[in-house]
Amino acid sequence: MNQGKILLVEDNPDDVALTVRAFKSHNITNEVIVAEDGVQALEYLFGTEDGPAPKELPSIVLLDLKLPKVNGMEVLQRIRADDRTRFLPVVILTSSNEERDLIDGYKLGANSYVRKPVDFVEFTQAAKQLGLYWLLLNQAPPASQRP
Amino acid sequence: MSFRDWPIRRKLTAMLLLISGLVLLLTSAAFVAYQYWSFRQSARNSLSVRGRIIAANSTASLAFANDADAREILSALRADPHVVAAALYDKDGRLFAAYPADLTNVALPAAPGPDGYRFERGLLIGFQPVAEAASQRLGTLYVASDLEALYDTFRLSGVIGLAVIAVSLLAAYVLSSFLQGTISQPILMLAETAAAVSSRRDYSVRAPQLSGGELGVLTDTLNHMLGRIEEQDRALRESKEELRRYATELEQRVAERTRELEKSNEVLQRNAADLLAANRELDAFAYSVSHDLRAPLRSIDGFSQVLLEDYAGQLDEAGRDSLHRVRAASQRMATLIDDLLKLARISRVEMRTELVDLSGMARDIAVELQGTTPERQVEIAVAPGLEARGDRRLLQVAVENLLRNSWKYTAKQPQPRIEFGSVQVNGDRAFMVRDNGAGFDMKYADKLFGVFQRLHSEAEFEGTGVGLATVRRIITRHGGGIWAEGAVGQGATFYFTL
Lengths: 147, 498
What we know:
Chain A is an alpha/beta fold. Helices cover 40% and strands 14% of the residues of chain A.
């Protein structure tokens, strides 16, 4: 799955820029799809009236929690509720390390929970590790049957 | 009803009557008996006298066998109507003359009996020897008298006796009826008093003092007892009254208190609701802080780094230095925010009280600390068996903060030593963490536990100044206190109670 897409659900443009840069600096060249809020993320995954969802699911969803319109937890819930996306790897990538968020995240079926460090150097390390793990090491679930 | 159950008056009267009756009876009987006996005697004597007289008068007739004379002499006996028969027998015992003349022989004994006067077959008979001189017996005089006179007198005396008895008994009855009163009256009064007291429960009644002696003593005693009972009864009533008053007062007070309690309960409930609301607000606040404040910091740090990386060539030393400082500052701010959040969390978390093994906890923390800086050899002495009741997680944070502090501030010591134990302070048990590290100036002791307050610069020892504030908040939540002693360069000791 080396060429799988990364769905980055993040409302902060700075964070988006930094994340993309972090991936680049570690030679992770996979396409990064950015959704700026929960609605966009869901539209991308499930499609709209205007355009259907892309055939291929992303390899990994990096999900921020605090999003406008529809927040991260709800997105996660919807992802896990749909048969097609039930096993889609979702990594919660957020500033919060509130216990409540941890519990809720895992309860709703997130695969992993990573706290975004302020230190950019650490941040790029984390990005690299995430990328390497989820894109290379981890075996993605098989694509589900679709008509 | 047996004698024992008779009323006392009847008893006394009966007794008196019985005694007087008995006495009368005995006296009368004796008297009558005596009368009877003496009467018989006198009757006998009189008959004897008469007999002798007749006998003396009859000597001539017997001597001369003059039965006509004899008959005449004998007939003189008719003066006494009670003489029923008389007869003269000659010395051979043959009937010579008889009186009354027409008496059949059957009534007269055929032959004279032995001499003497005696009572035989309802008659007083006598055989009187007729003799002229002492030696010559001429014959025997037989004389028989009926006992009518005797019986008459006897009857008379008997009647009189009975009459006397009757009258005496009556008099005795009357008298005894009066006299028994002196005994029975006081007793009856006593009995009445006792009955009145017990039936009406009126303890003010007293028995009148009617006589002296034992009854008087009894009356007195009873009256005393009644007096005491009355007193006690009154005292009892009074204390019952008091009790009733207390009870009412108590009820009133209880009602008041209940009202007060209800009011303060309401206030408490409102306060609790307010607190709950405030807590929730705090929750939301902390949550947003942890997200919103850190994001810009990330940007600051991130893009500073970008600058450093991408434009390293175009930056001189000063420029690079500036960016480094920018990065350091934003990272420090992140740490501060995290520490603040931790501190805030301490107040929010619900405490679960249990028995916590502080010795074990300290040892585990010590091992962890040693693991983080394996190059340092720190001597850690943990006193065994230290236990306390409190929230395990919070106590863990507190002990960890204290030990970490000690660890940090002994970094420059050649032979660092940290102790964790307990001491007695003013009779209470206090826990103690002591180190021989940098210590502090006691002048600034009150600043130790302030938020973000530090007594050393960041260059000397890193830290945000929140650790001790956190510990104090934890200790306060457990209802305890914390204080510290130290000297510059000689180490510090932190004491806390729970």
